[in-house]
Design goal:
Blueprint: H1 2-12, E1 23-29, E2 36-42, E3 44-46, E4 49-55, E5 69-74, E6 77-86, H2 89-102, H3 122-129, E7 132-139
Antiparallel strand pairs: 1-2, 1-5, 3-4, 4-7, 5-6, 6-7
Helix pairs in contact: 2-3
Length: 142
């Protein structure tokens, strides 16, 4: 996909600052192929934890199950992290609620309405969580 290739190029270049506040490059090892893959993903950071969501129908995130080691291109540098995949609907809903409370402007992409004070609608969160997974990347100390 040309879009991913372009994002990867930007994130690895001196121009990474144009997009690196909202997109990271995650490099992981395929669980079956044992090949290294790099994928740009949207993220939200909370201290040493990076939050990512993906559609369940996609398969890349399955390689992160069980605390898989990954590399994250974050703010122009590489960091090691451990993946944690949340797949149960309740866990995904809880993660997505926290995610959208941090970045309510993303709610439209998940088709989640916000109430007047900016709180995501719980019913919409439940609906959105049915076809998604929630991923936590725990950054290792520098």
């Amino acid at each position: 996909m040309w879009y991913n290739a372009m994002m990867k190029w930007i994130l690895l270049s001196p121009f990474h600052g144009l997009i690196s506040k909202g997109i990271i490059l995650i490099t992981y090892t395929g669980r079956k192929s044992r090949k290294a893959y790099s994928l740009p993903v949207n993220y939200v950071r909370d201290g040493d934890v990076i939050y990512v969501t993906s559609y369940r129908a996609r398969t890349w995130w399955r390689s992160l199950r069980g605390g898989a080691a990954v590399s994250v291109r974050l703010d122009g540098g590489d960091r090691k992290a451990r993946g944690e995949v949340i797949e149960d609907d309740a866990g995904v809903a809880e993660g997505l609620m926290a995610y959208l409370q941090k970045v309510p402007q993303y709610a439209k992409y998940y088709q989640v309405k916000l109430d007047p004070d900016g709180t995501p609608d719980a019913t919409d969160i439940t609906q959105a969580s049915r076809d998604r997974v929630f991923i936590r990347l725990h950054l290792e100390p520098v």
